[in-house]
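sorry for the late reply, my laptop died twice this morning and i had to redo everyting from scratch. anyway the thing you sent over, i finally got around to it. pasting the sequence first so we're on the same page, its 283 residues, then the predicted structure underneath. double check i copied it right bc i was rushing
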Amino acid sequence: MRPNFEHCMKLVREGDRDRYLATLFAPDVHRDALFSLYAFNVEISRVRDLAREPMPGEVRLQWWREALSGERAGETAAHPVAAALREALERYGLSAERLIALIDARAFDLYDEAMATLTDLEIYGIKTQSALFGMAAEILGSRGAQSEMLTLDAGIAYSITGILSNFARHASRRQLYLPQDVLNHHGIDANRIYAREDSEPLRAGLADLRALARRHLGSAREKLSATPPQVLPALLPAALAGPTLREMESASYRPFQFEPPVAWRRQWWLWRAARNPSRIFQS
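ok and here's the structure:
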């Protein structure tokens, strides 16, 4: 099993550098489980990039559903990420249901349809990023309603920030997470987004998403004082949301030219938050 967990660590280091670095702040005894969880997320989040078309993507997602449901025991044992993840779930007594719900939510990524409403966007964040924050917190020993509500807010804020950071990339492949109700409210034409046309209505719609992310950061910040210290490494990736949102408020911000903060700055933000947890949910 050791090679499987090492494979997961390498996959996370290459595919999700932020969570790789955050996991280094966790106790060594829990790192294998965290890396297996995050490696699973890397596998699922890149399905569209690998499959290119919806049907092959659906096939890949269905394989993971069946693997987590125990229907592909032989294939799961031969797949390093699936095998490591199953071991971690059993070791910590975690249910695969949230991961199957994550897979279901990620099916949206395969299609070129706008998110319907802001509520749907929040639900997408809950089922994807909040699930990861929540399960990571459980691995580190924090369970209960308070922890669940904090990780819910953290996941929504982190998800929205990631969507905004990748807005240009999504638009280039006609993928739109900006909800339809926001488009309608501001009179935004989706075809102008696909043509990479900047406009005041578009900026207003993106500002709505930033405001929503900040509200969830603020809600998480209010709950942080009651969070056990051992869970903080699970929350560290959220420390990148506030600074990234602030960069989008600068006078030089251009939605279709925005580049996510460079690696060394992200590493610096993570280190500062690890030293001072009050920075994790600063908006």
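The CA atoms of residues 150 and 251 lie 32 Å apart.
thats about all i looked at so far, will dig more tmrw
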